[in-house]
Design brief:
about 425 residues; alpha/beta; 2-enoyl-CoA Hydratase, Chain A, domain 1; 3 domains; six-stranded mixed sheet; four-stranded antiparallel sheet; 15 helices; 16 strands
Length: about 425
């Protein structure tokens, strides 16, 4: 079983990882940002570099939005302006294209709040010791605003192709006091959280220190979640004749070596993983194969495509083998392309949740840096078309969602469904 931690793939586009790539440059900026220069640069450079920015809105919409942000930029904080720019670009319909505002967040204004969004709501999994009564509790409101309204507001910071996008990305914003303040969910220097049966708790922002936080402990942890931070791994379940392949990232030693041979040495080999997979399929009694991509945020689809092609050839000689492909709210980008490979080449049954990514989507991401703020803007340089039918997600053949009770008991409803077939 591979034990290397997977690199951030989709997370490179999300809330925390962008801060890492931008922070050094941002630390050198002046106290006040010349937003007129940055916004003019954004208005000219993003359309010029993007594969096709104007598929949802036209150039006039962009220029009007830029003008509105510039008009108020002198009267609001730099973070406020960056968030407005983030919202504007998010509205153009490309989930890979976004303004990374994270370096403008104050490290001392973080909320000790890690949450899990399951079928029956948002539950607290991590917090500071002084708020430990929140662990395992369902959040119902923030600042007297229903949590559904809060999440709808926060979703304006992302491109909402589907509901899965919201469930995947929005929970991370709840730990930022400044973002909640931006949307008006607090104006008192603290946050009132309503949870459980109408109980309340006052959270005060402070410097984030997850190592000092307490976490909710489920009775047990199922295989996929326990190993979700690995690039890929596998397990054979002899009692059920199930071979489980967990594919969390479209990345590997081989792909890393194309750019950085030193880094590649620390990563697991997909070639070895693939060899082990086919050896298992050929030498052990396997009736069902699970290929799980529910946590896969993308990377490079080429190795997955090559694997599916080999698997499809194998299946022609082993027609008894049933295949189940697991999808979820974090299935995105190159993982979507590999899911479409399974649709194209196999008779796999798709199970789990709808994907955040669309079958046809922009990708091949590059970045530009705004000259004054030094913030990065990611943008797409290619369009991937994998189906004639335009749809905003891949829907599983069999929808299966996890409840908080399932999570607490360590039950994976996806695995249980396959096991009982």
């Amino acid at each position: 079983m591979e034990q290397k931690t997977k690199p951030a793939m989709k997370k490179a586009f999300l809330f925390l990882s962008a801060a890492v790539c931008c922070l050094a440059a941002y630390s050198q900026q002046p106290e006040r940002i010349d937003w007129n220069t940055d916004l003019d640069y954004l208005a000219s450079e993003l359309p010029a570099r993007h594969y096709n920015l104007f598929t949802v809105h036209g150039k006039e919409y962009l220029l009007a939005g830029i003008a509105a942000i510039k008009a108020e930029s002198g009267h609001v904080s730099d973070l406020h302006t960056a968030l407005k720019a983030r919202q504007l670009i998010a509205s153009f319909g490309d989930s890979h294209t976004r303004v990374h505002f994270e370096p403008l967040l104050d490290k001392d204004l973080s909320l000790p709040l890690g949450v899990l969004w399951v079928s029956d709501g948002l539950y607290v999994l991590r917090t500071a010791p002084e708020y430990k009564e929140l662990l395992g509790q369902r959040i119902t409101a923030i600042g007297n605003v229903p949590i559904a309204t809060v999440t709808d507001s926060l979703s304006t910071l992302i491109t909402v192709d589907n509901r899965a996008c919201v469930k995947s990305e929005v929970p991370q914003f709840l730990s930022s006091f400044q973002i909640l303040e931006f949307f008006g969910f607090t104006d008192s220097g603290q946050v009132e959280l309503t949870y459980g049966e109408n109980k309340t708790c006052i959270l005060k922002p402070s410097r984030s220190d997850q190592t000092a936080q307490v976490t909710f402990k489920p009775d047990s942890v199922f295989f996929a979640r326990e190993n979700r931070n690995l690039l890929f791994t596998d397990r054979y379940f002899p009692e059920d004749k199930i071979y489980y392949m967990l594919y969390n990232s479209c990345f590997s030693r081989e792909l890393a070596a194309l750019r950085d041979e030193e880094r590649a040495k620390s990563l697991p080999s997909f070639a070895a993983f693939e060899e082990r997979a086919f050896q298992t399929l050929e030498t052990r009694p396997v009736d069902k194969l699970i290929f799980d991509m529910r946590y896969n945020g993308g990377g490079n689809s080429s190795q997955g495509t090559a694997f599916v092609e080999k698997l499809a050839a194998f299946l022609k000689k082993h027609r008894h083998l049933k295949i189940y492909v697991v999808l979820g709210r974090d299935t995105f980008s190159s993982a979507i392309l590999n899911a479409m490979d399974f649709k194209r080449l196999t008779k796999a049954t798709f199970i789990g949740e709808e994907t955040a990514g669309k079958p046809n989507h922009f990708g091949e991401v590059k970045n530009l840096q705004l000259p004054e703020s030094k913030l990065y803007v990611m943008y797409s340089t290619k369009y991937f078309k994998r189906t004639k039918k335009e749809t905003n997600t891949i829907k599983p053949d069999v929808p299966i969602k996890m409840s908080f009770s399932d999570f607490t008991k360590g039950i994976d409803p996806v695995f249980e469904w396959v096991r009982k077939r």
